Amino acid sequence: MFTGLVEEIxxxxxxxxxxxxxxLGISAxxxxxxxxxxxxxxxxxxxxxxxxxxxxxxxxDVMPQTYRNTNLKDLKLGSRVNLERAMAANGRxxxxxxxxxADGTGTIRSINRDxxxxxxxxxxxxxxxxxxxxxxxxxxxxxISLTVVEANAGSFKISIIPHTLAQxxxxxxxxxxxxxxxCDILGKYVEHMLRFGQLAENEVEQDGQKRTEGIxxxxxxxxxxx
Length: 226
Fold this sequence. Notes:
Elements lengths: L7 E11 L2 E7 L12 E4 L2 E8 L3 E6 L1 H6 L10 E6 L18 E11 L2 E8 L13 E4 L2 E8 L4 E5 L1 H6 L10 E6 L1 H15 L3 E4 L2 E4 L4 H6 L4
Antiparallel strand pairs: 1-2, 1-6, 2-5, 3-4, 3-6, 4-5, 7-8, 7-12, 8-11, 9-10, 9-12, 10-11, 13-14
């Protein structure tokens, strides 16, 4: 699990492709501190496993599923990427829950300055993601924990402070570039549980009585949630 607080910007030093599989070598100095084989590192918001490393770089595998659904396939030698180590159990939770499991990509439609902030307008490649994108809600963009400031039927906007811009790859992005998107996991779990309750058709017997298995409105009301 990650927090969406980028620790450093890494640079692509090697890219080996075999079809839709990739082996990436990334230059870094902060995330390699205390790194162990098999540790997770978020690369542009994608949870990847370190399979080799030294003090100045590490390598990760990218499987076809990840290749197809993220912007890692667009990387070139010299490309910059956001990096974050998995959250330590004794660390501060400064961002929000980020799994490193991208829900898809988005395209930057515009970049505009608003006094000391920079506003990015992003169009998700999958419009179904909008059910999780709400104003003042959290979203991870290339692994950065950000707040949605505006959302409509076709795009959403995020506002970046100078510090975040200087410490992440958003500073190098331009209109037309793609970013990885991960929506707030809490919304996805709530949706799944409610849908499961509505679609549950099998009844199970408990204490001699039959009941419908799942969470629905009557269940929430009966248990004091409504």
